[in-house]
Amino acid sequence: MVSKEDTSLLNQWQRHYFMLKSETSTPSQNADAVRGMLTQLQYAQMTNRLSENDATCELYRQYFEKYSSIVDNQNKALGLNNYADTATALNRPSESLSWKSSVSLDNITSVPCIKSLIQNSKKNLDDPNSSTIVIAKPKQTRITTQVCSPVDMPTSHNAPRPLFKALTSTDNPAVIRSKPRNTSDSGFNYKASENSVRQSTSSNVSQDDPLRHSDFVPNQFAKGFGSREGKRGGLQSQMDDGWSGSCRQPSRPLQSFKRKASSSSSSGIGQGSFKSEDSMSRTGNYGNSYQGNTDTGEDSRNNQASSAFKTARDQLIINNQKKAGNRGVRGPPLTSSYGGTKKSLGTTRRGINSKFIPPVVSRDEDGDGGGTTYGRTDSRNHRSKKDESDEIVDERLKNIEPKMIELISNEIMDHGAPVAWDDIAGLQFAKSTIKEIVIWPMLRPDIFNGLRGPPKGLLLFGPPGTGKTLIGKCIASQSGATFFSISASSLTSKWVGEGEKMVRALFAVARVHQPAVIFIDEIDSLLTQRSDGEHESSRRIKTEFLVQLDGATTDTTDRILVVGATNRPQEIDEAARRRLVKRLYIPLPELQARKQIVENLLRQQCFSLNDSELQQICLQTEGYSGADMSNLCREAALGPIRCLQGSEIQNISADQVRPIIFQDFQDALLNVRPSVSEKDLDVYLEWNQQYGSGVK
Ligand SMILES: Nc1ncnc2c1ncn2[C@@H]1O[C@H](COP(=O)(O)OP(=O)(O)OP(=O)(O)O)[C@@H](O)[C@H]1O
């Protein structure tokens, strides 16, 4: 029993058969029409528009074989094969000449359907929402065609779903395929939206045309393949859904659609002559691959299902990365990495997968016999390559939540731009003390042990803007230690309720990455004196911090230094104060230090100041902090710009701007006032007198 739908399709086919017989069309039109009908029926079968009952199959088989024999018959009198080149529109010299495919490696990109595919592919690549799948440049023996998103596939029974076989390579991981759908049929990939299907017109493919090695030619191909409506005559116009396409040499019943492409190969192209990578690149990147090497067609189909699926977005990312690579630029990955700089120290954040690089390079590891911790960048790069392969999770992190480790690694571990000791003006005592307790012990742990063991806690206190954070940065760059920089307020507010876990994680990660320096800005807010009204969570954080600090202090093998910075040392809990053994006062810069700050800042500017003018400026800035001096210089640097008239700012070249002069500083002094009061200073001096290190 043949279903109604089957009957309608088969009737239609039969009708065309009689029309062909009537010879009202030219042979080339007939060739187009027959191939169109074959493809239409293949399509109908593959989309289950033909029921699987025996009667239908038998009829289908008969018609298919009949038409296949016509269209593939090499005999000029009996077959239509000689007219196959109409599909490519490559203008065969004469219809009377024996047919020989004019498609070659050189002109393949001139074939309209290929052109159309290239355009479609480009369009889809440009559209980030498109889920069109593309194939990367194949290794060889492959022509690629475009695959449409499965989501674009019409679901209605009446809406045609063009299918075509993806003869993809099994060995090329660059091949990206659409999600296999209906793979039980043939492992086909899918393409074309409903609209594009409806727009498709007839197509013919020569027997030797490479396209015929796809069991079904996609409608984009069909569309491009010499759709010459005017010439086509009645046959094509009667195709009710407008779908037509190419066919291959069908000589088997329905099931034969899955057969190897090799059965129909007859010419060079068809037998896998598309081996040139160059030709592949000229055809562009398309979704479905065509494999000229017909012997492997079946295998490749079988392997399709196991191939990795990539979304168009993934592919876009790959393409972008490739583009960046081509430009010789290491393009940033299109991952969700927002804000590459770290707030606290303004330095680069390390990626989630980045590994710690121990800063002190042993002589052996360094390989150059240098064994120095300075010149950190190189040694780190050197180590990072090694460590990337080392994915072993340290035992010490076993009880720490991975999320916390990740947060510490991403947010806190900090590798700042190098700051040299000379960049810090003045503060000689603080600098030499830090060298003694931080740098040397890190360099020579063998000497600095036992009684000479370095303190594990250091407190930098003093007025705001005096360079405490700068010292932290300098320690980070010069010690070669892994540097963790975190604001205490982050611990208490950012990870509410999890602060103590963060503290634990921080020390655990630091322990793994020894030698390490943990720099905690605003440490007073973390270690404030205990009080009755104290919030439970901050009490817990503080307790945890003290426990950890104790652990670091008592374990002599740990090489962890905690550096706290504060403007309010008087608020620090006494238990914490005790553990921060070295307490260094970072005062306002003295005259000489202020001079150095100004000179350093002016170095890269055009200025005109003699020594006495500079001296006068520095005398006038008594009581200014380092940050105030920096602000003063910025303000003075704007003086020459403020002198410019109206539109001059738009036209003047940078080297025409006049130098910064003494008067600019005088004007700036009116705007920038010292930020630290005498009264505040008294508090520091008093506290330093009582608790500070190295007070004479
Ligand atoms: N001794 C110094 N030498 C050179 N520049 C300094 C010095 N002190 C401060 N500065 C300048 O002031 C800026 C702010 O300094 P920094 O942030 O280190 O101060 P701070 O003591 O940490 O301030 P706060 O206590 O407010 O955090 C620095 O970036 C630098 O430009």
Topology:
Elements: H1 4-22, H2 27-46, H3 54-72, H4 112-126, E1 142-145, E2 163-164, E3 189-190, H5 194-199, H6 219-224, H7 229-232, H8 234-237, H9 269-273, H10 277-283, E4 288-291, H11 297-304, H12 312-326, H13 363-366, H14 376-388, H15 402-412, E5 413-414, H16 428-443, E6 457-461, H17 468-479, E7 482-487, H18 488-494, H19 499-512, E8 516-521, H20 523-526, H21 536-554, E9 560-566, H22 574-579, E10 582-585, H23 591-602, E11 607-608, H24 611-620, H25 626-637, H26 639-642, H27 648-651, E12 660-661, H28 662-671, H29 678-691
The structure holds adenosine-5'-triphosphate.
Structural commentary:
The protein has three domains: 335 residues, no CATH class; 223 residues, P-loop containing nucleotide triphosphate hydrolases (Rossmann fold), CATH 3.40.50; 85 residues, Helicase, Ruva Protein, domain 3. It contains 29 helices and twelve strands. Helix 1 runs parallel beside helix 3, helix 18 packs across helix 19 and helix 23 runs parallel beside helix 25. The chain has a six-stranded mixed sheet with strand order 5-7-8-9-6-10, sandwiched between helices. It has a two-stranded antiparallel sheet with strand order 1-4. Strands 2-3 form a two-stranded antiparallel sheet. Helices cover 43% and strands 7% of the residues. It has 696 residues and is α/β, with parallel strands linked by helices. The site of adenosine-5'-triphosphate has 19 residues, from helix 17, helix 23 and helix 25. The site of adenosine-5'-triphosphate (ATP) has 19 residues, from helix 17, helix 23 and helix 25.
